[in-house]
Amino acid sequence: MYETFGEKEEKELHEMRRRFGKLRFETDHNIEKSKLMNTYIEQTKQDARSVLLNQTPQSKMNLNLQMSRLQTNTSILDTNSAKRNILSKRTTTNNRNFSARTLTNRITSLPNNYFFNFPKWMEERQDFQKWKQHEDFDIHLKIVSICKSESFRRDDGQKTIVALYLQTLSLFKLMPLEMLKELGGRLTYIELKTENDLTLCRYGEKGECMFIIFKGKVDVISSDGKLLKVFGSNEHVGRSALETDAPRNATLTTTFESHILKLQRWDFQQCLNNLFKIERPKWKKFVETIHFFDSFHPHKIERMCDELKGRFMSTKDCLYKAGDQVDNFYIVKNGTLVKNVVVDLEESNRWPIGAKEWEKKTITTCQRIPLQYKAQSLLGYYEIVTFEQLQLKKRTETIDAAEDSFVLFIPKTLFTEIFDADDQKKFRDLYTKLHPTSFELLISKVKSEELKKKQEFQIINKAITDGLISVPQHLLEKKFSKYSKVFDNAKTKLKQFKQSREIIKREKRTKNMISIYE
């Protein structure tokens, strides 16, 4: 016979419940104790089951009762622990949400949201001030440290950080993120250690790179030493060096406090060529949406699309100016370009001052009329298609970018190879249709537009004086419904009047007939 579940085991269980019954399982140390408790209880259960097999019915009943109590205590212990864990998680989540809301409210509305306002007690701590000098604290220091590192050591995350910064700058806003990441892996930082380093480039030097002012300023100095312009943070200078190696037309200087990034022309052109290979099918679909090209043979349009290149422009960049050599044919894909036309408008008035004597006064006003070219507009073809007639070798107009834009282009030689004389006549007809061909037509067009604007102003002014803009919409609807009811009532009364008039006429006619026969 096996030994019964005796007093010794009962005392051990009682002692374990007393020691571990009120444990709190929040920390790792207490979790270790809870595991020990659960292991002991499970082992006790197994021993008890093995003993239970050879017990009398009364002993089995007592043992089952003790085991049920043990199970109940264990479940209560687990339930209390779970409740405490849930409450702890809720408290932690609420604290995190509160901290996130507090941090969000402390964000200062500065460019790019790079700066935060921290509590005063935190900023006064020395360890916090030391941490502020670390690159992980300030995104500016992080970008500078990335650009200081060697290009082949930059990972994808670091390139993305630089790309997101470039995306906020003019000239780079329309570039795809993949191209910006590629540029982010090629930007370099200019170390300013000596006085000679403060001169970024000199007048007459060969242009090989563009400078991005990450922080600080750059002075533009002419060949005779005059200060022409000052560029500030988040601006770029030396843009033309990314396209040609023409000599510098000014000297650029900076200060020791500035942070200057450099982009080489070779790197930029390589990134552009990679972009062109990817984007050229999309350009073809874009060109096919221009209705003017529907009248051309498909193989000509396809060949033109195969030779297309692109150019990114920032605000106020000049596409070409009057006097430049005729080089390319352009198609506006994104953004807005503008041509400013200066027109002198004359207005005359006269009044009598005597017998057959009139005094006349003429007022001349100079107006600058901007002609805008948006997406799908064609530019730069007039001098090409009229070369045989006018022999124009240089540009006759100036085109600037009104905002960040992207234009497609092909060289002049390819344009003349693809489009023959008949095709070029279509381009001349298009230009005649869209643009005034003489100064008189231009003045009449400007005057008609001015008259149209005056009429629009008079309509708006009349609407304002009539009080339409100051009357709420619900009052207008209420008055409209009221007058509609009045109109319906008037129509009903008119109908009733006509019916009664017909009845009266009929009665009169009947009386007249009766009087005749009497």
From TrEMBL:
Query: The Cyclic nucleotide-binding domain covers which part of the protein?
Result: 171-289, 292-337
Superkingdom of source: Eukaryota
Q: Which GO terms describe its molecular function?
A: cAMP binding; cAMP-dependent protein kinase inhibitor activity; protein kinase A catalytic subunit binding
What's one GO-annotated cellular component?
cytosol
Quote the InterPro entries the UniProt record gives: cAMP-dep_PK_reg_su-like, cNMP-bd_CS, cNMP-bd_dom
Query: Mind telling me what this protein is named?
Result: Cyclic nucleotide-binding domain-containing protein
The lineage, from the top, is:
Eukaryota, Sar, Alveolata, Ciliophora, Intramacronucleata
